[in-house]
Amino acid sequence: MSTPVNVAVIYYSSTGTITTLARAIAEDAERAGAQVRLRRAAELAPQSAIDSNPAWAANIEATADIPEVSPDDMVWADAVIFGSPTRYGNITAQLKQFIDTLGGLWQSGQLADKVYSGFTASATAHGGQESTLLALYNTIHHFGGILVTPGYTDPSKFVDGNPYGTSHVSGQGDLPIGDVTLTAARVQAERVVKFTRALKAGLAAES
Question: Which of 12, 95, 112, 189 has its CA 20 to 30 A from that of 84?
Answer without folding.
Answer: 112
